[in-house]
Amino acid sequence: MQFRTLDTALTVHQESNNHKLGFVAFKKFGSAATEPRDFRGISHLCEHLVCRAWDDMDDELTRRGVSHNAGTGDVSVQYFFQGLDAHIDEVTDKLLLREGPRNILNWVPSEAEFERERKVVIQEYEGYMSKPFNAMYVNLGRRYFDFDTAIGDIEVLQAMTYDKFIPFFLEQRSFDAFMRVGSSERSQSVLADFVAADPTPRQFLESTRPYMALVDTNRPVEFRSKSNGEVVIGDWLCFDDSVAPWEIAMITELFDAGVKSPLIDVLRVQHGLSYAAGMFRVGAPVPAAMSFVTVNPDNVDKARSLLHCVYTDWEKHITPERFATAVAGVRVQNQLKEASNYQWHNAGQAISAPLVNVTNALLDTFTYERVCSILSKFFVKENIRRAQVGEFLEI
Ligand SMILES: [Zn+2]
User: How far does residue 73's CA lie from ligand 1's centre (Å)?
Assistant: First the structure.
């Protein structure tokens, strides 16, 4: 740690860059988007059970200050360990090279472990679906794409047996990608490359579940949450392969970033209807952006029509100035990441969440005209799939 005295007599400290952070991750392609009908939610159960392989190392990991976690996404499942370089080396050796059944590549859980973890995952499902936003997200997937998301189908989880589970588990345990990075190699791009090693969700889905286009299933949806004080409404705004994932990320940035974002500006600042509003990218089952707004039940209709205006009157909100502001903000965020090793401190988060790296080089190719052509093509009625918790509506 270095200290420096500014002219103003304020003393600030500068942290050393030499964190010697190590990181190791395992990744399996194939998850919620590739699960057969009677295995929906089982990739997530597999994730829980793979993590039982290093149960016997818990004290050691704590003693070494190694943090670890795992995440099941729509198209892949990831496991990671983070800590000081030297400790990560030894932990990695143990995970991969030790003799016997607890080597991560040999591990098979017992029936008792399976039953215990199945209950945990069912409980996780109940908690997840009790949150309005999550329920809306899951119901959109079910209703329009016959897609259950990583949380799966409660009936599948309840009916799953050990014998049926094990072949699926063995397939899930054969990792497709492995990354070990030490502080000497530390750079944003190494992590970004690993995360980006996913086939793009669209290509992936076409090769595995070609029927996962818009299907309008009429499948009954499940509403676990009916809070009286707040309703969540939102939409999936669907794109196609002609729009790159990073471009979708930038579109959401245009609608979402800052208090002057169109969603916050219209719903909260101008009309005082909402506390939280935003938009983010969804990678599967189709390339899409998801908007959300929380409102009082009495204000649902009003918020709905305002939301619709934000999409259809996008030219009013997404001005060249707005475009320039959002792009400039992302450029600076990129500089901040490089300067502070931000991405390494948040590596776990980055690896478990679908992350799209909007580099400054990509931004150099991004123009306001491109934004206009994307929005005028896709921000139209046919591409909007509407949802709310407590009731399910279509346009
Ligand atoms: Zn879980």
Answer: 11
